[in-house]
Amino acid sequence: MIDKKKLGAIIKQHRKEKNLRQIELSTKTNLSRNYISDIENGRYAPSVDALVKLAVCVDLDLNSLKMTEIQGVDNVV
């Protein structure tokens, strides 16, 4: 299961690095600002479609995400 808080924090960090406000990201992705806020604050896990839209806009390489980091797994054998 995806750790929504960690994923939201990663998205928020990348958005801020791009100097985008939530409303600007909302316009670019056609997702509501409230939905983006909920994702960033760990209240919702984005759908795959929403995650791809967000990743493209904030230059987040989804291949670079460590699934163990997102899932909150500390030690993987």
What's a concise summary of this model?
The chain is mainly alpha-helical and 77 residues long. Helices cover 58% and strands 0% of the residues.
Q: Secondary-structure map with pairings?
A:
Layout: H1 4-17, H2 22-29, H3 33-40, H4 48-57, H5 67-71
Task: Give me some keywords for this one.
434 Repressor (Amino-terminal Domain), 77 residues, Lambda_DNA-bd_dom_sf, Cro/C1-type_HTH, DNA-binding, disordered C terminus, globular, mainly alpha, TransReg_Diox_bact_type
Question: Which CATH-level-2 architecture?
Answer: Orthogonal Bundle
Give the termini distance in whole angstroms.
18 Å
| CATH homologous superfamily identity | lambda repressor-like DNA-binding domains
Q: Regarding CATH, which class? A: Mainly Alpha
Q: State the shape.
A: globular
Helix content: 55-70%
**What's the average pLDDT?**
86
Kindly describe this structure.
Pfam families: HTH_3. Keywords: DNA-binding. This is Helix-turn-helix domain-containing protein. Residues 11-65 form the HTH cro/C1-type domain. The protein is mainly α. It has a single domain, classed as 434 Repressor (Amino-terminal Domain) (Orthogonal Bundle), CATH 1.10.260. Helix content is 58%, strand content 0%. The protein is built from 5 helices and no strands. It has helices at 4-17, 22-29, 33-40, 48-57, 67-71. The radius of gyration is 12 Å and the shape is globular.
